[in-house]
Amino acid sequence: MAIRQGRYTLNLTTRPSILGNAAVVGKTEGEGPLSAEFDHIYTDDTLGEISFEKAESTLQREAIIRALDKAGKTPADIDYILAGDLLNQCIGTSFGIRELGIPFLGLYGACSTMALSLGLASVLVDAKAANFAVASTSSHFASAERQFRQPLEYGGQRPPTAQRTATAAGASVVGCSDPNKPCVEAVTFGKIMDLGIKDANNMGAAMAPAAADTIANFFTDTATSPADYDLILTGDLGIVGSQLLKELLQKDHNIDISRNHTDCGLLIYDIEGQDVHAGGSGCGCAGSVFNSYILRRICEGDLKNVLLVATGALMSPTSTLQGESIPSVAHAVLVSKPQNVS
Amino acid sequence: MAIRQGRYTLNLTTRPSILGNAAVVGKTEGEGPLSAEFDHIYTDDTLGEISFEKAESTLQREAIIRALDKAGKTPADIDYILAGDLLNQCIGTSFGIRELGIPFLGLYGACSTMALSLGLASVLVDAKAANFAVASTSSHFASAERQFRQPLEYGGQRPPTAQRTATAAGASVVGCSDPNKPCVEAVTFGKIMDLGIKDANNMGAAMAPAAADTIANFFTDTATSPADYDLILTGDLGIVGSQLLKELLQKDHNIDISRNHTDCGLLIYDIEGQDVHAGGSGCGCAGSVFNSYILRRICEGDLKNVLLVATGALMSPTSTLQGESIPSVAHAVLVSKPQNVS
Fold first, then answer.
1. What digits encode the pLDDT tens for the residues A253-298?
2. C-beta atoms of B87 and A8 within 8 A
3. Residues of B with Cβ-Cβ distance to A94 under 8 angstroms
4. Cross-chain residue pair A129–B4, CB shorter than 8 Å
5. What is the spatial distance between Cα B45 and Cα B55, in angstroms, rounded to a whole number?
6. What is the share, in percent, of chain B residues with pLDDT greater than 90?
7. Which of A71, A76, A333, B39 has the fewest beta carbons closer than 10 A?
8. Residue B150 has what pLDDT?
9. What is the pLDDT of residue A201?
10. DSSP state, B294?
11. What is the ipTM of this complex?
12. Alpha helices in chain B (DSSP H)
């Protein structure tokens, strides 16, 4: 049963486990430093589909099917799938999962979706409202560029602050506590923050205040500090946002995360060598990095506990054209090593 | 605590209550048969804002603030807001609520959002993961027409099967069981159904199979029949979809709901007199009808129990242009009269 801890945090006392997880990615992501970690690398970013949107749907479905398989489950075992993506009306998700026949709780959290879906799935399992739930998300470089910036064919130049939307999907299968599997200890859902950043090519800066707020709230609620965690892993702040996050936490909250912070957007690419500007972004960035490299290290006990803080920028191309600033949100999920692993 | 009943249904044993609710609408909706039921009618559909998108944000915020006020709560009392809308990246919601400072669980369920948000808020309260949660949604005729069909300025002609997106918002505040307030007894989240309808001007037909599936699952899981309920209220099937729903339930499941079924899209307008073609639609249609007329009648004991089944079409303009069919989903929430009302 969830116990509310402070204003923002839920302590999930039954410690739901991540029974299976998978990450599948596109060609560029497969050429990056995490190459060996992913379940599958597609060398053709169309995945053989006739549109990039359909390719993204296939990507997400593939991650879900592989995660289910690794958990020893079929779609018929799953009570709910909690999922979303960046595309208008979340079609990456709805077309990707429609044939699975699993009751669907559609989410929109932009790039925070992996933490939102995993957190909510864990709360439902903890409450016994679900025996098994899937959390998943996806993004695709080409479908996102066309929708949010320019179609690839336009050949527009990207500024150095821009991040690259990862062609990637990740999925976790959550169930009752299993001593041989990683477990979800706590969840902190964030509130919307908006400090007035209007540059859609600088999402890291727009999202950093939301990450800072959620992280500070988590530490206050749990009466812990960065030293209590092996890793504080933000999703998709990239170079600019990660630096800003550290400054905001230091300045506003006197919290120093410089020793044990990294960001999924910094891990997924070789930033210098792969021409990805300020790093990776997109729902699938945190989704794939967490569901491969990070969960492997947690499973092995190499990382004892990780605070995943995925961040989302909640603007649309329309709001950007209308001159609006970028509201952002960040959700945090505390994941710990399996009980039986020392 | 939620008890799983059958494959799809959650029995919320603590019976969370709807402590406050509000509905605000635009001019056309205010001229319809439910005129006297709404908390506020805006005679100018811009709400004094410079864009229809901003108008929709203001509409949703206004519904939330009024619902909070009627529940005797402030934003600081609320643990989570669960909300979404039809606009790309759900900006009606994110820009509408950003100043409230409430932890935000973003949802995308298209026109099913009122049932999705109310259902999930009730599950969280039932599980004691939240003391108080807000469920809300909105839609706006002009912002939706521009995004999904044609801008109003184009003057396109709408076919008879088309529904009118309501300019409307609704919000409910959910908390622990209160004998003087309506309560949420059960929730059935639906799975995606897609029978191959491709006509974005005939959403009712696309969504009817999802409604039929969820309703049939609810009756199977609870071992009840239509006669056990005062009202089965679908969200936004309109004339075409309502007829199809009845046929599908009769044909595929031998269930007859003709005696106690109506649809929010048939209630919100004077269909003959207001030139609204096949009836109302949009997240705000079910949101506003449920949070005004229906909850008033439940509060008064005039309706003892109502199965709200809001339906959502999960396509996007992109998927429609790509020739895809329309996947749909429907979520059901069983709401009953206050214990202290006979």
1. 999 999 999 999 999 999 989 989 999 999 999 999 999 999 999 9
2. no
3. 192, 314-315, 327, 329
4. yes
5. 7
6. 92
7. A76
8. 85
9. 82
10. I
11. 0.97
12. 27-30, 52-71, 91-97, 113-126, 141-148, 203-222, 238-253, 264-267, 283-289, 295-299, 317-321
Secondary structure (DSSP) of B35-79: GGGSSEE-SSTTTT-SSHHHHHHHHHHHHHHHHHHHHT--GGG-S
User: How near does any CA of chain A get to the CA of B49, in Å?
Assistant: 12
Residue-level pLDDT at B96: 98
CA dist B196 and B207 (Å) reads 11
Give B98→chain A minimum CA distance, Å: 5
Residue found by looking up tokens 């997109």 in the block:
A282
Rounded to whole angstroms, what are the CA distances from A202 to A160, A164, A205, B88? 9, 11, 6, 20
CB pairs under 8 A between A and B: 174
> For the segment B240-287, what is each residue's pLDDT rounded down to a tens digit?
999 999 999 999 999 999 999 999 999 999 998 998 999 999 999 999
| Cross-chain CB nearest to A327 (options B54, B98, B129) | B98
How would you label A223-251 residue by residue, b for 16+ Cβ within 10 Å and e otherwise? Answer: eeebeebbbbbbbbbbbbbbebbbebbee
B284 and B166 Cβ atoms separated by less than 8 Å: yes
* 8 Å CB contact between B106 and A329: yes
Residue B185's H or E segment, with its range, is: strand B183-188
Instruction: Compare CB distances from A189 to B103, B107, B120 and report the shortest one's residue.
Output: B103
According to DSSP H, which parts of chain A are helical? 27-30, 52-71, 91-97, 113-126, 141-148, 203-222, 238-253, 264-267, 283-289, 295-299, 317-321
Two tokens at A295? 């969960």
Chain A neighbors of B95, CB-CB under 8 A: 319, 324, 327
Which residues of B are less than 8 Å from A91 in CB distance? 314-316, 318-319
Q: Do A103 and B8 touch (CB under 8 A)?
A: yes
B189-204 burial, b for 16+ CB within 10 Å, e for fewer?
Answer: bbbbbbeebeebbbbb
pLDDT at A192: 98
pLDDT of residue B1: 85
- pLDDT for A160: 87
What domains appear along chain B, each with residue ranges and CATH number? 16-175 (3.40.47.40), 185-336 (3.40.47.40)
Q: Do B189 and A104 touch (CB under 8 A)?
A: yes
Scanning the structure block, which residue is given the tokens 């500090």?
Answer: A225
- Contacting residues of B for A90, CB less than 8 Å apart: 108, 314
Nearest CB among B51, B95, B108 relative to A327 is that of: B95
**B95:A322 CB<8 A:** no
* pLDDT of residue A153 exceeding 90: no
Distances (CA, A) of B283 to A184, B87, B119, B267: 33, 10, 15, 14
* Chain mean pLDDT for chain A: 96
Q: What is the pTM of this model?
A: 0.98
Q: Cα separation of A33 and A22, whole Å? A: 17
pLDDT digits (tens, 9 = 90+) for B131-181: 999 999 999 999 999 998 888 888 888 888 889 999 999 999 999 999 999
8 Å CB contact of A318 and B90: no
